[in-house]
Amino acid sequence: MDPFATLGFPPKYDVDLRAVEKTHRELSRALHPDRYASAGASERRAALNKAADVNEAWRIVRDPVRRAEALFALAGVEVGETKEPKPDAELLMEVLEKREALADAKAARDAAKVHALADEMMKREQQVEAALAHAATFDASLVTKLGEMRFYRRFVDEASSILEQLE
User: Fold this and answer.
1) Structural domains present in the chain
2) How far apart are alpha carbons 109 and 95 in whole angstroms?
3) H and E: helices and strands count for the chain
4) From CA 31, how far away is CA 49, in angstroms rounded?
5) Is 17 in contact with 72 (CB distance < 8 Å)?
6) How far is it, in rounded angstroms, from Cα 16 to Cα 149?
7) If we measure between CA atoms, which residue out of 27, 17, 29 comes closest to residue 60?
8) Cβ atoms of 68 and 132 closer than 8 Å
9) pLDDT for residue 71
10) Rounded-to-integer distance, Cα 167 and Cα 165, Å
11) Where does the pLDDT of residue 85 fall: very low under 50, low under 70, confident under 90, or very high at 90 and above?
């Protein structure tokens, strides 16, 4: 499924999420099962399937990692953590050091340090997103950016979870 085509938008990373969300809502209303209550079984089933596609397309497009994965897939580049090249050693060491600092901050119950680490990694993620937004094509040379974004996203998610525990 091409989530961009399903929602009626050109396939690109830099999308107007408000416009996509608005389209998603409009399509969801148009495909709502109540509108097809008196229709035949095949028409109801088709509308339900289309509604499911629209919802899945929205989930893909609103998530930065899944959006990039969809663009790579549309370009014929296989992605997935087991199909992508290994990140460089420098990135792995940096992430390992940041994870250790995060664990230390958690143990010390230092919410300010957790915030600072999360902010730093969010900025790094935003840099990757900017690179993807400016990419003319999603070819194999960009796949490493997707891996980086996954590392940063996981880190930020973990930091958010820690902050919830601390607060």
Assistant:
1) 3-62 (1.10.287.110), 89-166 (1.20.1280)
2) 20
3) 7, 0
4) 9
5) no
6) 20
7) 17
8) yes
9) 96
10) 6
11) confident
CB 85 within 8 Å of CB 144: yes
Structure tokens at 129: 């997103």
Angle at CA of residue 70, ends 61 and 10, nearest 5°: 65
For residues 101 and 58, what is the distance between their CA atoms, to the nearest angstrom? 35
Residue in this structure with the two tokens 């900025």, named with its chain if needed:
123
At residue 86, does pLDDT exceed 90?
Answer: no
Count of all residues that appear for the chain in the document: 167
The helix or strand, by DSSP H or E, that contains position 73, with its residue range, turns out to be helix 64-74
Q: Which residues contact 84 (CB under 8 A, 6 or more apart)?
A: 143, 144, 146, 147
Are 113 and 162 a contacting pair, CB within 8 Å?
A: no
Residue type, 100: E
What does the pLDDT read at residue 90?
Answer: 93
Res. 15 pLDDT band, cuts 50 70 90 = very high
- Per-residue pLDDT band for 94 (boundaries 50, 70, 90) equals very high
Mean pLDDT calculated for residue range 100-117: 97
Which of 27-41, 66-80, 151-165 comes out lowest in average pLDDT? 27-41
Beta carbons of 60 and 67 less than 8 angstroms apart:
yes
